[in-house]
Model the fold of this input.
Amino acid sequence: MLVNKMTMKLFLILVILFLFISAAIASNQGKVSTESDWPLLKGPYFGQKSPGMAPEIFAPGIISTEKGELNAVFSPDGNEFYFTIEVVPGRSYSTYYMKRENNIWSKPLVAPLLDKYKGGEPSFSPDGKYLFFRSMLDEEGNNQNNADIWRVCRIVDGLAKADKIGEAVNSKFNEAYPVISSTGALYFHSNREGGCGSADLYYSKFVNGSFSDPVNLGSNINSKFPEFHPCISPDGSYLVFSSLNRPDGFGSIDLYISFRDTKGNWTKAINFGESINSQSNDYMPFVSHDKKYLFFTSNRNGKPDIYWVSAEIIEQFNPKD
Done:
């Protein structure tokens, strides 16, 4: 009788232990990877196989996951990577970064500087010295009704004080998605008055330590439809951007490209067509600093994902050919 009681007690202990382990395993499912289970990523672009002339999801299971990811940006030296994750789909976002040291990439962490300033849409200066971004804060850290462009020197500590780039560029309207050309000019989009449509692309030259009054990029690029997300190529020879609901579009938001002609003027913008665009939103372009790849965000799978494609595809649209 005593043996049967001991056996029953041992059986109950084993059952309880099994249930406890099962619950612990279930509770860990879906959690963000820890350092111990983060894959070892080496080399440029996390060691991913290079894409061809058709867009592919970038770093599936690493960057592009079951969450929504968008707005991919690499530093000029290729050793830092910024991207955005949807916290609440369509409403709340957070910018993450990864760093490569000794040829090994870290896991994604919230970018402390952008988190501090509630910033997004980061972009590097060509020399990597400055980080530009968009924020809805004023100089005192209070929320405001419009977006402005900020800049921080990266040589200083990562949490160094950032500053707005000046009233010549920033206005009571929205200025966002800053990109710096090889000559130091600032490209951005704004819904300020006097444009061709509800939002246009502008550029501002950097003269004597400050940015000059912005210049509208003109009717070859801007239209009565909204234009946004400019991306100037590393050599300044072409400009990729997003536009909404143009008659020649394939989805709500499409990617377009314009080239500089021999006189330095921008050619009439061309829709990338089905080679890149889909029936869903395609937006937020970025050309890698080595000029090898075009990155962009697409909702073609029902949520934002980051895609990349060989930059060789761009030459197919160059009117000089």
Residues 17-34 have pLDDT under 50 and may be disordered.
